[in-house]
Design a protein that fits this description.
By secondary structure, the protein is an alpha+beta fold. It has one domain: Metal Binding Protein, Guanine Nucleotide Exchange Factor, Chain A. The protein is about 35% helix and about 20% strand. The chain contains 3 helices and 9 strands, in the order αααβββββββββ. The strands form 2 sheets. The protein has a 6-stranded antiparallel β-sheet, with no helix packed on it. It is globular. About 10% of the residues have low confidence. The structure holds zinc ion. Zinc ion binds next to loops.
Length: about 200
């Protein structure tokens, strides 16, 4: 027969402590598992959101239109509000994206490239060529007036800046080393392009 040893006060405290520890561990595991489950569940809607977000971007931009050709002239603060950060830095601050980073650089898809800031048609895919310079390159704009030109003497170079003919967003530069028939190379930041595939 086992002799019952009465637990003293300290033993009881220790016992309670170890039970509590186990309980807390259990709670932690449960929380972690639920957290992980939430993570894997939230992955799917998150990836779907990107396409939706892209649509939303254009919808939340009140000047974006592929049919309205009237000039857009709004304050810089307004542009900052309606354009995604990376688009704003190219379009309005005349930034340059890192070379070989645009999905459009080597794209051979048939369609039209629009201005990401305002929806103005800029280039057709059949005037796109592989320049190897690291940025999407075209030899001719959609039409005269879809692009405007301005001398650019920044960074110790003499270049011609090209801007959107509708909203004056900075697009890139044009050089005279392109292929026939124009001999021009429109070197354009992919971030400022919005592509629509032809059906
Ligand atoms: Zn534009």
């Amino acid at each position: 027969m086992l002799k019952q040893i009465p637990l003293n006060h300290d033993d009881v405290d220790l016992l309670q402590l170890s039970v509590m520890k186990k309980y807390i561990q259990f709670l932690l595991i449960i929380t972690l598992m639920t957290g992980l489950q939430n993570c894997s569940y939230s992955q799917q809607p998150a990836s779907k959101k990107t396409a939706m977000e892209e649509n939303k971007e254009n919808k939340s931009n009140p000047v974006y239109s592929r049919t309205d050709s009237s000039k857009v002239n709004i304050a810089e603060e307004e542009w900052q509000k309606i354009l995604p950060k990376e688009v704003y830095s190219i379009a309005r601050l005349k930034g340059t994206e890192r070379p070989f980073t645009s999905k459009y650089e080597t794209s051979k898809e048939i369609g039209t490239y629009y201005c990401k800031a305002c929806g103005n048609a800029l280039f057709k895919s059949d005037t796109k060529f592989d320049s190897g310079c690291g940025w999407p390159s075209f030899y001719e704009p959609v039409k005269k007036g879809s692009i405007i030109y301005q001398p650019d003497n920044s960074h110790g170079m003499t270049r011609t800046e090209v801007m959107c003919g509708r909203c004056k967003a900075h697009l890139g530069h044009v050089f005279e080393d392109g292929p026939p028939p124009t001999g021009l190379r429109y070197c354009i930041n992919g971030v400022i392009l919005d592509f629509e595939k032809k059906d």
